[in-house]
Write a structure and sequence with these properties.
Strand content: under 5%
Order of helices and strands: HHHHH
Number of domains: 1
Low-confidence stretches: none
Largest sheet: none
Shape: extended
Number of helices: 5
Length: 78
């Protein structure tokens, strides 16, 4: 709960997006992207490391913290 409020998670099925796609084009596009969320996605950074040897990944905790700080600084509802 580091973002300041409890997080809620849920599941939206392929059927939901098909039905919603009748009214919302963006939901229709999600049906085509569902495969990315139904199977594990394994990425290999070998070619990236070869092309950019000095590149270093940002640790997840640091990336989330910095992102939340940026959003807090740049909120539109000030």
């Amino acid at each position: 709960m580091r973002c300041g409020r409890p997080l809620r998670a849920g599941v939206m099925s392929r059927r939901f997006f098909r039905l919603a796609g009748m009214l919302a084009p963006l939901a229709r596009e999600m049906v085509e992207l569902m495969y990315e969320f139904e199977e594990p996605l394994v990425l290999d950074g070998t070619r990236l490391a070869q092309a950019f040897p000095a590149f270093r990944c940002t640790p997840h905790q640091e990336a989330v913290r910095e992102t939340l700080e940026w959003f807090r600084r740049n909120r539109e509802d000030r």
